[in-house]
């Protein structure tokens, strides 16, 4: 088991108490299976794309859900005994097993769209920072607090 010393981060980041739990969750997910394989691309400054290789799955067999800051992609095939009676394989190298893959999304990251094409599931994401959270320039000598 790995241990990570987070004390340097706590000296630099104020109000990021949930950082330790996110790192802990990430290390637990390392034990997950690597199926299905996926890529995460940076499309633009605040736009991302997750591409998952899910050959053999139809649109109605894949579910995409976002709850709080977790994106969950689930694929479920019909029961194996039903499809195995209809098909007889001499060699089966294409995996068609059920899967569940979770991604932790950063604050203000929203799912824009999802598309399934040629066995690849594309999920487009964008980080939209609210106006109140954008950096503000403070002029020296300005009085931000008005006297009432």
UniProtKB/TrEMBL annotation:
Q: Which UniProt keywords apply?
A: Stress response
Do you know which InterPro entries this protein is assigned to? A-crystallin/Hsp20_dom, ACD_IbpA/B, HSP20-like_chaperone
Which PROSITE patterns would you find in this protein's record?
Answer: SHSP
Q: Does the keyword Phosphoprotein apply?
A: no
Q: Which Pfam families match?
A: HSP20
Domain SHSP, residue spans: 29-143
The yes or no answer to whether the keyword Kinase is present is no
Question: Family, per the entry?
Answer: Belongs to the small heat shock protein (HSP20) family.
Please give the PANTHER family that the UniProt record associates with this protein: PTHR47062, SMALL HEAT SHOCK PROTEIN IBPA (PTHR47062:SF1)
Supply the name of the protein: Hsp20 family protein
């Amino acid at each position: 088991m790995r241990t990570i010393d987070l004390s340097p981060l706590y000296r630099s980041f104020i109000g990021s108490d949930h950082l330790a739990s996110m790192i802990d969750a990430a290390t637990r997910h390392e034990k997950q299976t690597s199926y299905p394989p996926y890529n995460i691309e940076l499309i633009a400054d605040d736009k991302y794309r997750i591409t998952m290789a899910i050959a053999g799955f139809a649109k109605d067999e894949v579910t995409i859900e976002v709850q709080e800051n977790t994106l969950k992609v689930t694929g479920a095939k019909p029961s194996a005994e039903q499809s195995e009676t209809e098909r007889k394989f001499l060699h089966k190298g294409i995996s068609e097993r059920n899967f569940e893959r979770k991604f932790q999304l950063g604050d203000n990251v929203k799912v824009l769209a999802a598309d399934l094409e040629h066995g690849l599931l594309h999920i487009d994401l964008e980080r939209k920072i609210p106006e109140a959270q954008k950096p503000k320039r403070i002029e020296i000598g300005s009085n931000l607090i008005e006297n009432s």
